[in-house]
């Protein structure tokens, strides 16, 4: 009986932990815009083209906070970071300050956001996070039609991909030799209106060829620069060779990347993690040898030293501390961290509204906070990042959020 149960446990272990392993990106699934991706939505063509042209290319699979540490062996200035939105995860508060310092030191951030196009990978990711876009660039979005709170395409896929064109507003170094650039949209993109956050300034460089709406912006950040594109598919494998897309990318790289600089693809936002490849891990013979030894030792122990009917320990009388610990554990499981964070933000905004004579409805008062002289820009960035995390995009740290809200409340009191 012991032998039969031990073998059954081994079979169950294999089915749960090893039998369900799958390739990270099996054929038939939607490809994502990452630098090693060979299919239509990847950046492999652009990556290899830049490498053959003598430009260093880095696949960043760590948080953006490593940029402030000059990792991975990067020059302190003259680099170009390419971020594609939406991603599979949002940005944490720990990434924002190092990114801001890195930009101000003389580097460039290129954000390719699925606003005017809706590729299939963007539809699979859901609506683009407007909080991520605002946090990174200072450009905020609003739906074009009243009552429409979403910025995403309708679920019905188009029969054929729609071509969207990007046309320069005026002569610029980025558009030298570029008449038009092309993006492809697999789903209809919802209309939106761009707003510039308080204290920021954007220069519109290009517009959509069909509607005339601005679709490419740039702004200075210290010695660095931020570029925002409303087309997310401009430099993917399937469109890089169309119209002037490759020339547009070459102009952006040649203008912003120094001789010792690099083009960095933020692959972490597309689900690629540094130092872990499941296929190589499960194919390593050392793993199978180790598992075989562990299973043999466990089987010997199960057959030689395990009793099927273990004696039950005598019941222990619960103490007062046990009651307190049980009640605290129950409350911690019932109340999600995001719900607690949202309640903290509503109380904080109601306090601000009471000071300014506004109605206490818990709505954010970003404009008033941005104009307050006692609030540092870094604190406001952390406050916005925590608000985005409380609404479902990122990890919530209640203790740090509570301390930040107390600190700001004392500043403005």
Largest sheet: 9 strands, mixed
The tally of domains stands at 3
Shape: globular
Structural class: alpha/beta
Proportion of residues in β-strands: 15-25%
Q: Could you name the ranges where pLDDT drops below 50 across 5 or more consecutive residues?
A: 21-27, 147-154
CATH architecture of the largest domain: 3-Layer(aba) Sandwich
The overall average pLDDT, rounded, is: 84
The helix-strand sequence is: HHEEHEHHEEEEEEEHEHHHHHHH
Strand order of the largest sheet: 1-11-2-3-10-9-8-5-6
Helical proportion, percent range: 25-40%
CATH class of the largest domain: Alpha Beta
Rounded to an integer in angstroms, the radius of gyration calculated over CA atoms is: 26 Å
The rounded distance between the terminal residues' Cα atoms is 72 Å
Total number of helices: 13
Strand elements, count: 11
CATH topology of the largest domain, by name, is Rossmann fold
Which helices and strands, and how do they pair?
Layout: H1 2-18, H2 44-52, E1 56-60, E2 80-85, H3 93-104, E3 108-113, H4 120-125, H5 130-137, E4 139-143, E5 162-168, E6 180-185, E7 192-196, E8 203-208, E9 214-221, E10 224-229, H6 245-256, E11 262-266, H7 278-283, H8 285-305, H9 320-334, H10 337-356, H11 366-371, H12 377-390, H13 398-412
Parallel strand pairs: 1-11, 2-3, 2-11, 3-10
Antiparallel strand pairs: 4-7, 5-6, 5-8, 8-9, 9-10
Can you characterise this structure?
With about 425 residues, the chain is of the alpha/beta class. It has helices at about 1-20, 45-50, 95-105, 120-125, 130-135, 245-255, 280-285, 285-305, 320-335, 335-355, 365-370, 375-390, 400-410; strands spanning about 55-60, 80-85, 110-115, 140-145, 160-170, 180-185, 190-195, 205-210, 215-220, 225-230, 260-265. It has 3 domains: about 45-270, Rossmann fold (3-Layer(aba) Sandwich), CATH 3.40.50; about 275-305; about 335-410, no CATH class. A hairpin with a 2-residue loop joins strand 9 (about 215-220) and strand 10. It is globular.
């Amino acid at each position: 009986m012991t032998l039969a149960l031990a073998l059954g446990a081994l079979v169950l272990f294999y089915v749960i932990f090893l039998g369900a392993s799958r390739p990270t990106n099996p054929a038939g699934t939607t490809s994502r815009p990452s630098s090693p991706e060979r299919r239509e939505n990847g950046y492999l063509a652009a990556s290899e083209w830049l490498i053959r042209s003598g430009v260093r290319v880095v696949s960043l699979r760590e948080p953006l906070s490593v940029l402030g540490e000059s990792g991975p062996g990067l020059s302190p200035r003259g680099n170009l970071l390419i971020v594609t939105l939406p991603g599979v995860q949002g940005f944490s508060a720990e990434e924002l300050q190092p990114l801001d310092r890195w930009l101000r030191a003389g580097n460039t951030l290129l954000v390719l956001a699925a606003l005017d196009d809706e590729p299939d990978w963007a539809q699979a990711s859901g609506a683009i996070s407007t909080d991520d876009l605002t946090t990174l660039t200072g450009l905020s979005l609003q739906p074009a039609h009243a009552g429409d709170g979403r910025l995403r395409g309708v679920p019905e896929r188009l029969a054929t991909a729609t071509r969207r064109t990007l046309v320069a507003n005026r002569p610029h170094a980025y558009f030298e030799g570029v008449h038009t650039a092309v993006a492809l949209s697999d789903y209809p993109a919802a209309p939106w209106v761009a707003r510039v956050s308080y204290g920021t300034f954007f220069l519109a460089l290009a517009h959509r060829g069909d509607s005339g709406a601005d679709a490419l912006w740039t702004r200075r950040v210290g010695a660095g620069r931020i570029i925002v594109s409303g087309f997310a598919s401009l430099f993917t494998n399937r469109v890089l060779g169309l119209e002037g897309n490759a020339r547009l990318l070459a102009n952006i790289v040649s203008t912003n990347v120094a001789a010792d600089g690099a083009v960095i693809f933020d692959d972490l936002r597309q689900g690629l993690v540094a130092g872990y490849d499941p296929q190589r891990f499960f194919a390593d013979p050392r793993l199978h040898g180790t598992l075989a030894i562990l299973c043999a030792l466990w089987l010997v122990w199960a057959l030689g030293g395990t009793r099927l009917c273990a004696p039950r320990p005598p019941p222990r009388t619960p103490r007062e501390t046990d009651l307190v610990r049980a009640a605290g554990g129950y409350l911690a499981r019932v109340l999600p961290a995001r719900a607690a964070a949202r309640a903290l933000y509503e109380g904080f905004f109601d306090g601000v509204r009471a000071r300014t004579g506004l109605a206490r409805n818990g709505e954010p008062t970003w404009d008033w906070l941005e104009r307050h002289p006692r609030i540092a820009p870094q604190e406001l960035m952390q406050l916005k990042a925590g608000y985005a995390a409380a609404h479902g995009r990122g990890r919530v740290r209640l203790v740090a959020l509570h301390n930040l809200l107390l600190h700001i409340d004392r500043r403005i009191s």
